[in-house]
Request: fold
Amino acid sequence: MRRVHGSNPFAAANLIRMPLRPKRPRPDRLSDVLAQLAKPAEGTVTLGDILAAVGERSFGALLVMLSIPNMVAGLIPGLSIVLGLPLLLISVQLLFGADKPWLPRRLARIEIRRADLQRMLEKTRNPLRRLERALRPRLAFLTAPWAERFIGLACVALSVLVFLPIPFANLVPATGIMLFGFAILERDGLVAAVAMVIVGVSAALFSGVALAFISAAGHTVRQLGITGS
Reply:
């Protein structure tokens, strides 16, 4: 048998016997986590359960999971009031650079019906999963630790708007908070930039509502003055 010069049979054997590096399992998407929380259809889930389900994904995941129900708050009466306060609290903690989110025991015990969560998922599952597939790390400076303080400030402002009892006015600010959460979660600066645009849109919309309310109130006062005289 002719020997090929320069060949190394031991190297070849090592190549054959070397085990393949196992692939790291990809963590469940947030849409999957929400789906698990919504099962079974009976019973309730607490905010503490949501916090536990988020695990190490921390602020970004929690912002997403608390903002999505507010996007369809019109389907669940009073939900914006229930989830608006925890959303505001988490945003304040992000603003001041807390290491991990925390909820007071009373807020952590707030319950949400699993049937309501399932109804919410039916409305948001497909667009949410399309968004999750599009996310990737980019424009890292917009999600750097110093930038998270500005994101926290923006989320505080949006959370206040979500908390206001204005029917069907939750969608735009809640969408902004959701995008900020995904931006932090996936370090996607482009999504953070889009969320900043939504902050401006929300400010413009609510400023218009406030001016209209003030104008209507002034007109009513003038009419009462004329009637009284």
Remarks:
- Residues 189-228 form the longest helix (40 residues).
- The chain is about 70% helix and 5% strand.
